[in-house]
Amino acid sequence: MSNWQSPPNAGYYPGQQGGYPYPQQNPGYPPNAGYPPPQGNFNAGYPPAPGFIPPGGGSYGDVPPPAGAPFGGPQSSMYGTGYVEDPMRDDEAKGFDFSEKTIRQGFIRKVYSILMCQLLITLGIICAFVYSPGAKQLTRSHPELFWIAFAITIVLLICLVCCTSVRRKSPMNFIFLFIFTAAEGFLLGTAASTYKREEIVMAVGITAAVCLALTIFAFQTKWDFTGMHAALFVGVIILMLFGIIAIFIPGKVVTLVYGALGALLFSMYLIYDTQLMMGGKHKYSISPEEYIFASLNLYLDIINIFIYILTIIGASRD
Predict the structure, then answer these.
(1) Which of these ranges, 36-50, 98-112, 241-255, has the smallest mean pLDDT?
(2) Residue 274 phi/psi, 5° resolution?
(3) CA 318, CA 146: separation in Å to the nearest integer?
(4) What angle do CA 223, 226, 228 make, to 5 degrees?
């Protein structure tokens, strides 16, 4: 009997190097595995033959395979259903982090590209009103143009902020943003035409310097401003109420205080929106799909800073 061969699909008792034939169907172990099954626990995915009890009181459970198991991984489906972390998952996670970082950097470049186009359009319209007597005469002879532009900015702002499908669908989002920028530039040009040229140039230069410094600060600081949305909203409410009161109490000091508070508040908003765009370690962030929304936020912050700085300059020179 020394040359007796085991029948097909013969099972093996655990713990036997090579084992001996068992005349039933393979108990809980795939055929042709090439080595004995592990001690004790067996793969739950392969039910044992009726009446088979593994030696040593072992039970069928979810355990990792022995060293040298097929597929060489602790998550091989051949050896139980219990979750053991796959080393490949670390590589996948690192790849995802790299991909997410790349996506975020591309998102930031896209936002600032759109923002630069908006600011150039706005600056061009302001220069046309400041340096062209015909533009000034047009707005004075047709005041209804101001209110038409004002209505367009309100409607488009509501569409871009409240309607996700509008600001995410291209090219509609770019068209709406371009029309909004042109209308906002017309409003700013109309307001700027009441100031002197040197005041406009000074306000533009101070706004550019302040926004550049705040942007660098937002990128470099370890402070997280993204959790300050509630405090900033309260600040907007207080500033609005103060502005209503300032209408009935005119004066140079009140105007200077109002302009300083507005410039300070929207400087904080610029830091807040910049960190929302950056994402990463910050508490909150904007989705990379919201590049129109992010550029609109930054644009409005810069425009408000410019308006309040211009108010301060005008009040101080009045």
Answers:
(1) 36-50
(2) -65, -45
(3) 24
(4) 95
Taking a C-beta distance cutoff of 8 angstroms, is the pair 125, 185 a contact?
yes
More confident residue, 270 or 86: 270
Q: What is the 3-state secondary structure (H, E, C) of the chain?
A: CCCCCCCCCEECCCCCCCCCCEEEECCCCCCCCCCCCCCCCEECCCCCCCCCCCHHHCCEECCCCCCCCHHHCCCCCCCCCCCCCCHHHHHHHHHHHHHHHHHHHHHHHHHHHHHHHHHHHHHHHHHHHHHCHHHHHHHHHCCHHHHHHHHHHHHHHHHHHHCHHHHHCCCHHHHHHHHHHHHHHHHHHHHHCCCCHHHHHHHHHHHHHHHHHHHHHHHHCCCCCCCCHHHHHHHHHHHHHHHHHHHHCCCHHHHHHHHHHHHHHHHHHHHHHHHHHHCCCCCCCCCCCCHHHHHHHHHHHHHHHHHHHHHHHHHHHC
Tens digits of per-residue pLDDT, 47-85? Answer: 555 555 555 554 444 445 555 444 444 444 444 444 344
- Cα separation, 205 vs 287, in Å, equals 32
Contact 71, 30 (CB under 8 A): no
Give the predicted TM-score (pTM) of the model.
Answer: 0.67
Q: How far apart are CA 216 and CA 44, in angstroms?
A: 58
Beta-bridge mates of residue 25: 10
**Which of residues 86 and 102 earns the better pLDDT score?**
102
In 3D space, the residue among 41, 40, 46, 37 whose CA is nearest the CA of residue 17 turns out to be 37
Contacts of 284 (CB under 8 A, 6+ apart): 226, 227, 229, 276
The gap from C-alpha 316 to its chain's centroid, in whole angstroms, comes to 40
